[in-house]
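ok trying again, last paste got cut off:
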Amino acid sequence: MTEAPASSTFQWSAGFLYAVSLAWAAYSHSVIWAIAACLLYLGIKPERMPKWIYCVWAICALFLVWTQPSLSDDFQRYVWEGFVQTQGFDPYSHSPKDLMNHGLAHPSGPLVNHPHLPAIYPPLAQEMFWGMASIWPHWRMWKLMVLLIWLFTLWQFKSFRSIAFSPLVLIEGLWNAHLDVAVLPLLLLALYPISKAKARSSGLGLAVLIGIKTLPAIWVPFVWRRFNTRQGIVLLLTCCLALLFLYLPYLHVGKDLFHSFLVYSQSWQFNNLLYFLLKSWVPAHLLRIGFGLALIASLGLIFRVRVKSLSQELALVWLALIVFSPTFYPWYLMWLVPLLPAKTVNGLFASAMLSYLILIPYRATGVWQENLWWLLPEWIGLTWCITSYIKKEVLLEPHER
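nice, full thing came through this time. structure:
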């Protein structure tokens, strides 16, 4: 009888310290405090929290929305690409550097990462940027849109409420304001028609996801094989026609439409332990081929074993993409929020947060340099979370057992 109050006291104390740590991390731009908040949350059970703690978390969430992102500068590109569209320019045809050299000016311009590259984000994302910039081309307007997406998801989807105040959602969504936060309602909406074998709605849902970011196209074969032949054709046609409609205003760009995505695929590398260990010994092009073949093999294995649950299968595909991609950023985990148990998501993100330690020397010296001392514990944590999830949660079709 005496243990319950002590446990309750620990829970609300940890819940309060979690909110304080996150708020201080945002205020002080501290990587260490952000990591501490993530680790603290691992010991928290949201269902045991008193209502007043949720009020504290809500205040913390609003504070994170108010503060400028400091762990990532992707938001500067969102604002810039929205702004240039309001000025009549095509973000796929002109890089920020070219437009600035020709006199186009906006406060976000000099702060855009990789200014020599034109837009990489697909058309639906560009429409979001344009909508934001049409009202106010400023990061605060973008953050207001992120807040509205978060509130809508919290209101409409009960399954989201258990993880709405988790570090992944608060840090990468409300604080860093990554575009990936838009996936929360869209993926939850897309899963329903797929689970009900509604081909047209499923194809449209997939097209919308791919219209936000290109990588979800990897899910198409795994969704398609859950339909019969006729429905599968309808699904693919609907998806392709919807994507054609989204890309139609930009088709005049031609082959350069996917230039930045190809550059990303062929040359970017960050935060993969195996790639880091091998890159000094294996030529880059051979290493990328090897990773590509490993990804194909893992996807083939997932396709062959037939995972019973749609959410589990899509999650395994996304995890394979993370493991065998030369580039992995913590916000990529946002796509797993609707697919994985909250405990697994929190563990994965707590591990991935160690990659932000690269910012400490970078802010001091300007040198972007990966280091084994944080890569190794990060990927030990990621591997443990992934293997534990597969072992405990994943169910196969009976005839494949």
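cool. Residues 269-401 form one domain. The first helix runs from residue 3 to 28.
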